[in-house]
Amino acid sequence: MSVKFTKDHEWVAVEGDIATIGISAFAAEQLGDVVYVELPAVGKNFNQGDAMAVVESVKAASDVYAPVSGEIVEVNDALVDAPQIVNECGIGPEGWFVKMKLSDQSQLDALMDLAAYKIFVES
After folding, report:
1. pLDDT tens-digit map of 8-48
2. Residues 6+ apart with CB under 8 A from 26
3. What is the set of domains in the chain, with CATH numbers?
4. Closest of 29, 21, 28, 26 to residue 4, by C-alpha
5. What is the pairing mode between strands 18-23 and 98-102?
6. How far apart, in whole angstroms, are the C-alpha atoms of residue 88 and residue 18?
7. How far, in Å, CA of 29 to CA of 55, rounded?
8. What predicted TM-score, i.e. pTM, was given to this entire model?
9. In Å, how far are 11, 46, 70 from 3, measured between CA atoms?
């Protein structure tokens, strides 16, 4: 499973036509302690770049953008009850926000791999 990153610090891991999406450890670190997560409804469609979720920390509230276009097929309800999971897990089995059925796999080509993302974050 390859993981790709956006310039807005979302990550996307794809298996078949399902994309699992979350925010990077860098983004979680910049936010500070996450205290609230608002997730979209299952069945809702988003275009690449649309705001699809909100993450709120002690410092600020930030939108989470769709790194790819598609339909939400699952949301991580655990984040609603325990938003601190975002800080603890990042890219991991628990830290994801949504799972989305991809509508255009070619959109992944424009995203960064881990090496490119590390360079982006350091610059």
Report:
1. 999 999 999 999 999 998 998 899 999 999 999 999 999 99
2. 9, 121
3. 3-105 (2.40.50.100)
4. 21
5. antiparallel
6. 24
7. 12
8. 0.92
9. 7, 20, 17
